[in-house]
Amino acid sequence: MKKIYGYCIILFLHSPFVNAQNGDTTYASIEVKNGTSLFGKIIEEKNQELTLNDFTLGKITISKKNIEAIVRNSSTQSYLFTTLQDKKIIGNIKSIDEKEIVVKTQDLLIFHLEKQNIKSIRSMSSQHIKRGEYIFLNPIYSRYLFGPSAIPLKKGSGYYQNTMILFNNFHIGITDNVSLGVGTMFPIFGYLSPQVRFSLGKNFYIGASGFFGYGIFITREQPNFIGMGHALVTYGNYENNLTFGIGWGKGEFNDTENNEDNDWDISVRPQFYIAGMVRTGKRTSLVTENWIGGYRYIGINSGLYRYRNAFVSSLIVRILWEKHSMDLGLSFIPFSNFIFGGRNYLYGIIFPYISYGYKFSKK
Questions:
Q1: What is the Cα–Cα distance from 55 to 69, expressed in whole angstroms?
Q2: ω before 187 within 30° of 0 (cis)?
Q3: Is 223 exposed, middle or buried (CB count within 10 Å of its CB: 0-12, 13-18, 19+)?
Q4: Residue 299, C-beta contacts closer than 8 angstroms, at least 6 positions apart
Q5: What's the predicted TM-score (pTM) here?
Q6: What is the 3-state secondary structure (H, E, C) of 128-187?
Q7: How many CB atoms lie within 10 A of CB 153?
Q8: Is-contact 137 128, C-beta < 8 A?
């Protein structure tokens, strides 16, 4: 009889869910690269794989190459618990057993969540939580209006963006550091935008972006080409960041009015690119994008060279949903200076900017 009791005690103590207290690091939240979130006790961990006793799914073995992140449990780690009724609760794990998880919120409320009523468990970083409320991440975090940040897209993640009806852009992460954009200005212009971006540490990123466009604007005899390249530096996170870029480019088109071929040689003067975004609320962000540069106008037949400066500035409000975004704002393009009454004046055009974005990845 004593042996039977002994075996029962041993089995009980080795049960995967035995009154685990908060801070038990054998428990972990695992983000899989396909977008799946798992939570449970790590039973075994090898060089190439990990075995987890998931709280709702049971025993699972995962190849480490398919794991995006492993967040070990701690007394300060926050989690987002989603019930089958889609109620969301954010808090720390106070204790776990085989039937329920006891959760303590920032408001010191205690929830006893039964296993059969839990839909998902996901670890939360500080940028997900504001005043104890769940804040979803910016779905279009790697792009401002037209220009990118140096924050990379993850492999398989991406987005679609439509701007002013005419501009369509798809961008997808090929690897965790390399991405490719394909876009059109319907129906006369198409472009490719390859990007390479890396993280150098917390909140610091560098990268390079290219833009190669091809179309027929004026005549059928000679197509038009625009090529640009930029080096990028970004400081910040997915929600609040600032990007500085410098680059050069070249463009060509036909001038039918003057009956000559013209070359817009942007590479003579560098282009400077300054952009940023600030998360202002649960569903809103402010985004600005500014381009400063110059180009050399070359009349090939006339042999005349002219130099002009260029400046474009935009400010928008980005309205956010978990997988969608809507941009509403204004852009200003100055044309030139003119003198009136002995004073210089800058004139240009202000036009509305409207854009829709959709995050089509699972993450």
A1: 18
A2: yes
A3: middle
A4: 255, 258, 260, 262
A5: 0.70
A6: HEECCEECCCCCCCCECCCCECCCCCCCCCEEEEEECCCEEEEEEECCCCEEEEEEEECC
A7: 27
A8: yes
Under a CB-based contact definition with an 8 Å cutoff, are residues 147 and 313 in contact? no
Task: Return all residues near 58 (Cβ < 8 A) that are at least 6 apart.
Answer: none
Q: Select from 177, 178, 237 the least CA-distant residue to 202.
A: 237
Residue 20 in tokens: 């685990």
pLDDT tens readout for residues 271-315:
899 999 999 988 999 999 999 876 655 555 555 555 566 788 999
Q: How far is CA 42 from CA 26, 27, 60, 336, in A?
A: 6, 6, 10, 65
Distances (CA, A) of 39 to 42, 136, 234: 9, 19, 33
Question: Which one-letter amino acid corresponds to residue 307?
Answer: Y
**18-27, pLDDT tens digit by residue?**
445 555 567 8
Contact 30, 42 (CB under 8 A): no
End-to-end distance of the chain based on CA atoms, in angstroms? 54
Q: What does residue 66 show for φ and ψ, rounded to 5 degrees? A: -95, 5
